[in-house]
Structure formats: C-alpha cells, structure tokens
C-alpha cells in the first residue's frame, strides 16, 4: 500500500468519529419539544430512554438516526475501498477502524462532553453495513430476547455476546471479527449498571417510565 493510499485512513477515522458523535437523541428531543434525554430515566442519550418520554415517534427517529450513522460510515468506507487496490488484510483494517471510530464516537461524543449512549443502534447499523446477514442475525437475537423478556438491556447483552461468534462463523476469525469483538465488549461495559439492576430485579422494562 502506497503512502497516497494510506493517507485517507486517519481522515476516515476522524470523519467516522465525528459522525458517530452526532447526538440524535438530543437533536430529536429538541425538535419535538421534549426534555433533554440526559435529564430523566437512565440519563442515556439513546432511543430506549427517549421512549420513556412517551413519544414513540421521537424514539423511532432516534433509533433510525443512531443506526444510520453507523451504517453510513461503513458504507462510505466500502465506497472508498472499491477504488483502491488494497490487500484483503488492509481492507479489513480500514473497515474495522472506521467501524470502531463511528461506534466509539457514539459512546464518547465530543459534542456531549464524551458522555454518550450505549451504542446498540449504532452497532446494529455498523453490522448491517459490514454484512447484512450478520446484522440481521444479531438483530434477530435482540428481537427474540427483547420480546421474551421485555428488557432492552438484556437483549443488547445477548446480541453483543452473539455478534463476534456469528461473525467468526460467517467470515472466519480475522481482524474484522476482532473489531466486532471490541464493540461487543464495549457494549457489555456500557451496560454494567444495567447488569447490576437485572441481577437485583430492578431493571426497567421496555416502554416503562423511570422516575
């Protein structure tokens, strides 16, 4: 890979991080005249907490926005790679780097003083763009667990645990699977408080309003 080809990677990572930092939960809430999602419920700027406001449309738009930014970042990376003659390993590094950058942009957004959401929707968008079959499989895990338990956090934890295993089965174990595993571990870490609440039987179910 030449220097000219490698130069865009830092710029792509920065652009992906900034895109991931766009706080759709806050933007949508302001557009609907709702309270800042960081001021109620779990305090998390994400779709599940926006749903606790009672406005389902605002929650849906937040979910779509957070998912779309993950997908757009990876799709743009795919578009750039289509014009390059890179080795498969370097393509995986590029895609994995962009995927992690947009994901961690959502978790630690510069626009919200690095206090962001938990990354479930953004991770879903990333996985769908990397491989639609993988993304749909992981979403299927989330939907099944969410439908049976009505715990968004438990569904997210199960989906996170399943994602690197499914990716490894579909792709073989490589650097891109390692990036998926890093996202999965970060998702689990972001849900640590939820894990404690689940164990204590105090976790709020989907649609319930937290005080």
Task: Describe the overall structure.
The longest helix has 27 residues, at 56-82. The model is unreliable at 1-5 (pLDDT under 50). It is built from 11 helices and no strands. It has 211 residues and is an all-alpha fold. The chain has helices at residues 3-6, 8-20, 24-31, 47-51, 56-82, 88-107, 120-130, 132-149, 152-171, 175-190, 192-200. α7 (120-130) packs antiparallel against α8 and α9 (152-171) packs antiparallel against α10.
Strand percentage:
under 5%
Q: What sort of overall outline do the alpha carbons produce when their principal axes are compared?
A: globular
Number of distinct beta strands: 0
Specify the structural class.
mainly alpha
Average pLDDT works out at 91
List keywords for this structure.
about 210 residues, mainly alpha, disordered N terminus
What is this structure's SSE topology?
Layout: H1 3-6, H2 8-20, H3 24-31, H4 47-51, H5 56-82, H6 88-107, H7 120-130, H8 132-149, H9 152-171, H10 175-190, H11 192-200
Helix pairs in contact: 2-5, 2-6, 3-5, 5-6, 5-7, 6-7, 6-10, 7-8, 8-9, 9-10
């Amino acid at each position: 890979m030449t220097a000219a080809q490698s130069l865009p990677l830092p710029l792509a990572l920065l652009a992906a991080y900034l895109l991931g930092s766009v706080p759709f939960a806050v933007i949508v809430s302001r557009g609907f005249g709702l309270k800042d999602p960081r001021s109620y419920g779990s305090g998390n700027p994400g779709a599940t907490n926006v749903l606790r406001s009672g406005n389902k449309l605002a929650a849906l738009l937040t979910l779509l926005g957070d998912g779309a930014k993950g997908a757009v970042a990876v799709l743009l990376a795919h578009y750039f790679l289509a014009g390059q003659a890179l080795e498969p390993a370097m393509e995986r590094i590029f895609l994995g780097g962009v995927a992690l950058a947009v994901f961690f942009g959502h978790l630690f957004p510069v626009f919200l003083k690095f206090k962001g959401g938990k990354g479930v929707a953004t991770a879903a968008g990333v996985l769908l763009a990397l491989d639609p079959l993988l993304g749909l499989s992981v979403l299927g895990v989330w939907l099944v667990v969410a439908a049976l338990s009505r715990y968004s956090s438990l569904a997210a934890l199960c989906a996170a645990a399943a994602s690197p295993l499914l990716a490894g089965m579909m792709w073989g174990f490589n650097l891109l699977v390692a990036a998926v595993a890093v996202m999965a571990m970060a998702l689990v870490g972001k849900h640590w408080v939820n894990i404690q609440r689940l164990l204590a039987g105090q976790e709020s179910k989907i649609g319930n309003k937290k005080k």
